[in-house]
Amino acid sequence: MRFPQTIEVAYAALEWVAEHAQAMDANVKNIVVAGEQAGGNLAAVLAMLFRDRGLPLNKYARLRGQMLINPMLGASQTSSSMAATVDSPCRRAWADYIPVASDSMHPYVSPVNSCRLAPALVITGHANSLRDEAEGYASKLLLAGVPVQVRRVDDAALNTGAHRLIAAQHPAFSTLCQLMRAFLKS
Q1: Hey, what CATH topology would domain 5-180 get?
Q2: d(Cα 89, Cα 15) in Å, to the nearest integer?
Q3: Are 11 and 53 in contact (CB under 8 A)?
Q4: What is the pLDDT of residue 45?
Q5: Domain limits of the chain?
Q6: What predicted TM-score, i.e. pTM, was given to this entire model?
């Protein structure tokens, strides 16, 4: 799926969660969007869409935060950490996601320059090619007065290996859960 269809599907999922929160015993006033790499892009874009559109089906819905792990936030891929990476799979992912080059500057494609969004927890790896753009995004949010926590962790801890990062078997799972709990308490 490509831009803009991807963000509309993600937004529809966010609307569904807000609409069915009570049935899931969830609090619609404490919605958090989260994602890793391309999913981090979608989470940041959802924060923008929530800011711009709200959730008309549930006027009580509140976006409490965004949790981004090594997020892909800039289609231009011009950060120093990206330039230092010879063969990043992100380059191919961006080319597949935005086949029309002019779309690369759309804020819903490249949220790296956005601000005035929900509070954020940004987790990056020390040597990850996405580190600089993720931390630059965090800086812009901070300058706009948005509460942000940035955590740079050991790259080996984020290497998904045999287990997905969200799987309890992943070596970094408990560390990520601790960071997320601390973020939600703040």
Answers
A1: Rossmann fold (3.40.50)
A2: 31
A3: yes
A4: 97
A5: 5-180
A6: 0.90
